[in-house]
Amino acid sequence: MNSGRMDLAFYDRTGRGRLIVTGRERRDLLHRLASNSLLDLAPGKGVSTCFQTQKGRIIDWTIVLDRGEDLLLLAGNYDRLSGHIQQFTITEDVTVRNYMAIELVVCGPDAKKFLGVELEPWTFVEKPLAGVKVQITRIEPLMGDAYSILAPDAVALRRELGEQGRVLDPVDIDEMRIDAVIPAWPNEINENQNPWEVGLDDAIALNKGCYVGQEIIARLSTYDKVQRRLRRVRLKEALAEGSVLEQDGKEVARLTTVCGLRALALVKSGLAEPGTDLGNAVVEA
């Protein structure tokens, strides 16, 4: 990462999609599509979940937030996810639309103090910040606690963050994801993987009833058939994203995100333990 204090940092994630789902049957429909349960959601609460194909392949890893009058989806692959939801909206009273807002991610040890919030993961509040009303959601950990800020305008907020913290560039963000082994669309979150392979265990409710892709996802867990695991690896030489690591002519890993000599890789399950030598890389603890 760039030099300097990193107790408070931020970056713009406006380009990542957000969907608003409205209608009387919105919760029931999404519950039938999602890998995690949405039935216990209440206003101010959220849940981490996956939406997948009939074959159990990931369409998107999404945070579903209950805002009372609607459900807000913080999505990565939002166009594909919107189409997926609408494909299963036949007679249901459900409408899906894009949600236009500026989104900043604020992270680091001082993020909670700067924002003035005390939140559990996947919960959110609305409050004034830098002169505008914003929505603050605690998301996956990056540099410790991390928060998504949705705002209609963020000029003053950017200025305050710039005065007290650091702006992160794409390399910084990938380095943080590698440190925390956090998947992202499209590198790790795509229709070539299932949720187990990229470490999204907490986004799956094994005691949940039927949902799209449920049979295959449950079978992979029950019969221990997950073929690959997302791991942080240390490279022995510079390699590009997408590079395949082989042993005896067989693929043992595929690099998904690379920053210098550190990377995220989908590693064959039998070789995923820390310290395992993969030829051109070693699995890190």
Would you give an account of this structure?
- The chain is an alpha+beta fold and 285 residues long.
- The chain has three domains: 9-14 and 101-180, Gyrase A, domain 2 (2-Layer Sandwich); 18-98, Alpha-Beta Plaits, CATH 3.30.70.1400; 227-285, Elongation Factor Tu (Ef-tu), domain 3.
- It is 19% helix and 32% strand.
- β8 and β9 (132-138) form a beta hairpin.
- The protein is globular, with a radius of gyration of 20 Å.
- The two termini are 20 Å apart.
Beta content: 25-35%
Based on secondary structure, the structural category is alpha+beta
* Domain unit count: 3
Estimated radius of gyration: 20 Å
**Helicity range:** 10-25%
CATH topology of the largest domain: Gyrase A, domain 2
**Mind describing the biggest β-sheet?**
6 strands, mixed
Unreliable segments of 5+ consecutive residues: 1-5
Counted by DSSP, the helix tally is: 6
Instruction: Using the 3D structure, state the CATH architecture of the largest domain.
Output: 2-Layer Sandwich
Shape: globular
- CATH homologous superfamily placement of the largest domain: Probable tRNA modification gtpase trme, domain 1
What is the tally of beta strands? 16
CATH class of the largest domain: Alpha Beta
Spatial sequence of strands, sheet with the most strands? 8-9-10-7-1-11
Order of helices and strands: EEHEEEHEEHEEEHEHHEEEEE
> In whole angstroms, how far apart are the ends?
20 Å
Mean pLDDT: 96
